[in-house]
Amino acid sequence: MLTLSQVSKSFAGRTLFRDASLQVNRRDRIGLVGPNGAGKSTLFSLILGEASPDEGRVSMEKNMIFGFLPQESAPAGDETVLELATSISPALVKARDVIKRHDAGEHVDDETYHDAMHAFGELGGWQLEPRAKQILAGLAFRERDFDRAARTMSGGWVMRAHLARLLVMEPDLLLLDEPTNHLDLESLMWFQEYLRNYPGSILMISHDREFLNQLVGSIVEIAHSRLNRYRGNWDDYVREKAAREEQQLSAFKNQQKEIASLQEFADRFRAKASKASQAQSKLKQIDRMEKIEAPQSAQKTINFSFPQPPRSGVRAIRLKDVDFSYGEMTVYRGLNFEAERGQRTVLVGPNGAGKSTLLKLLAGVLEPQAGTRELGHNVKVGYFAQHRVEMLNGRHTVLEAVLDSPNPVGEQTARTVLGSFLFTGDDVFKPVAVLSGGEKSRLALVKLLLDPPNLLLMDEPTTHLDIGSIDALLGALEQYEGTLIFISHDVHFIRSLAKSTLHISAGQLTPYAGDYQYYLDKTRATSARAALTAGEQLTDSRPNEADAAPAQRGPGLREQKEQKRAEAEQRKAEAKAVRERAQMVKDMEAKIHELEGLQQSLTAELEAPDTYANGRAMALNRELLKVQQELERTTAEWESLVK
Question: What number is the average pLDDT over the span 476-486?
Fold first, then answer.
């Protein structure tokens, strides 16, 4: 259905593709990989017709429909989220706009209106809405979000709405550029399952190795200006690539030996008249050879030793008898938690269980409502979350932001590390203010790694990083000698770093004193990714004595009854906590809806000319500011609850 034949393309004097070929057939699932700058986005541009090859040809089936999701910055206007999700073609949007204007009482002549109604029906417009609502719900939109103007939502939610539009459209070929960047774990899992049964073909760029493992049937790597195809998923690609490189290295060495032997003969005998013709023949034989290139590993290592934090005491941090609630909804009651120096723990559990809340309590972002937070001797806490990017100075350049540190490094060191996180060349002179959210996130990581605390708390640190940058981050954290507690949905990242696992459900902590595989084995999990959000249903196999506090052996009948009663009371308390959380979420959603209505009403009043004539503008502005601040605060609390 799509063929690239011997395509060559150069950009800014650099050759991206040379005689590159690729065939995409129906229902293919292809992962596109390669280092930053290799040409992945350019390949998408060639397929979409936004760029033309210098040589070669891009051909496709007649009337083939593409759907493209960029990595960032998809547009949003005055349309609602639901309207955006159902905007599957310009013709349908045009017909819908005519119908809307007519229904709103605007003058539309009868013929235009009837043509629009006919076109809307022919294009399947009436059937789209139920399908769009189902997909939007799968991507974690609330029902009351459907009628919100898309432009009033954050960039990440706009990207989700555009993703919903593509799934509603169901194009013949989906082109996806890092589609999981803006999804929480449960939405990601829904999306992954949805794509399993997608009827069209998929070509995707993704940093998520587990996502590629679950979905793709082949990997196309951009290397040495060519497209190299490997059958299988990401893990198959890694194994096959290593085998190919080993074969190539062996063939390269054998050829170099042969060339050396031929050259030695030519050098020895070219001066002898009786052997001169033979010597010349050997040289011509070398020239005729198709030279085998030495294999080059796509992954570059960082020749840089990250600074280590000062050593802390044995106990890094302790939460003792901590209570914490959002309003009437209890998250933790009597929470006790300790982390020791050098510990590397991943937090797992269902959405809303309290993982991010625990990180914020440890970081001091949230204050316990009862109990204490005790830092160990000489402990310096670092907390990496999305809001951390707001601490960057927008007036600084990227390089200045890195050099502005209590323990600054040299410019060459700073540029080396920035290059590992995709800030190359003149990118380091960009103002921080113009960076995308993903770029700011990467920059905040660089600043953190160059001046690391000895207690590092990280919430989804791999979001917006490509595979090379994730490996750079892993390299830094593998050297890190401090204490690390983190949340992630990247299974590869977790497996590489976690030495212990803490399962959180309904405010209860269950420690597992082994790595992530140990946790999977103990809980009898069937999926490494699903186990990240599993609740109590996974914990069929209880932790052994190495995982939990030691218990007295051989309890008597009375002790058994007391234990059963305590367990029943705990289950009742957990169920109550879940109900309270659900009610709190519902109440907050109602409050947000009310505030949004008030915000809309005040904005409309400020836009009216009479407001300025009667002198009410200043008072209205003050009231609007209060409403906006309350809306932001309530929305932040709601996000903490549902995360």
Answer: 92
